[in-house]
Amino acid sequence: MDIKKCRVLSVGHARMLAEKATDTDSLLSIVDQVTKEDRIRGEANDYHNLAVTFTRTYDDYVSGFEIVEKGLTYFPNNVDLLADAVYYGSNAGRFVECENYLSSLEKIPTALWNWRAFSFSIDYLLQKTDWEKRPTSKGLLELTEKALKYARLEQVALSGDAEVERGYLAEHKIRLVRERYFRLMGSSNNDDKYTKAAGIEREAAEGVLKAAINNGGFTATACCLKLADMYFDSKKYKDTIDVCRKALSSPQSQPSANLGYFMYLIAMSEDAQLYEKDSFGDEMRVRNCYRDYVGAYRCNPDRGTYRRNILTRLAILEARSGISAPPVE
What we know:
Strand content: under 5%
Distance between the termini: 49 Å
Number of helices: 15
Largest sheet: none
Shape: globular
Number of strands: 0
Oligomer: single chain
Helix content: over 70%
Radius of gyration: 25 Å
Order of helices and strands: HHHHHHHHHHHHHHH
């Protein structure tokens, strides 16, 4: 079947054809028909799904944006399509249109927003300085303030929703952007107020992850991962272990983070603690570390870098302690 010669019957049909297409001409023919022929219609979700096919499968944000724009002519207040227009438009270099679509989205009560509306708006605000002709420090802070407002609203609006964790992760990301800005400003201007502001943002970034983890209303596995990394990088090994164990103690059918990585962090933290206290003569602690390294090895079958590092750490620990390491397989 020559797809580029097929007549598209509906937006849903266009998606079926796009998933089977094997050449660029066929894909462009599908986009051309959907965006230019008014007889081709579909529901708002059909336009969203077709745009996702082009952006996710073919990395074609220009076509995705054009499809979404067509959908918005029929469904001008659809939250998903407006959010798509902001995100796909920025990736397609259509920045003026993005501003207009974000303004349209902001006129819709946030009680009607979903995770996509919040996340895409926040990402757009954080990336906006990339294409501004003369980005300023004041402008950057204003954008991050607005992004923070959306992140906090997301935490409230999606409370009880499976996607609520995204709001906490978004605030964490924004706080780290602000921390980096203040730290660099403090270094450049030798001004203590910026250094203090950077410290406040760092504490807030850690605090929002703790708030998510302690919320109790949802399983914050991805937040556990971010906090565990922060603790490990700061050499807070006991705290790292505690957070990792909390993540592993809350089973999920579709975990939002690689659970094997938590085992990896636990083992490395225990290893580091052996060095801190020179405890290589403590057989129980050494064997506990071995056990967790073996668990991490088995839980990361596709992570070659982790596995190679685990084998190296086991060999070093065996040499330092004189206690034979167990087989990993």
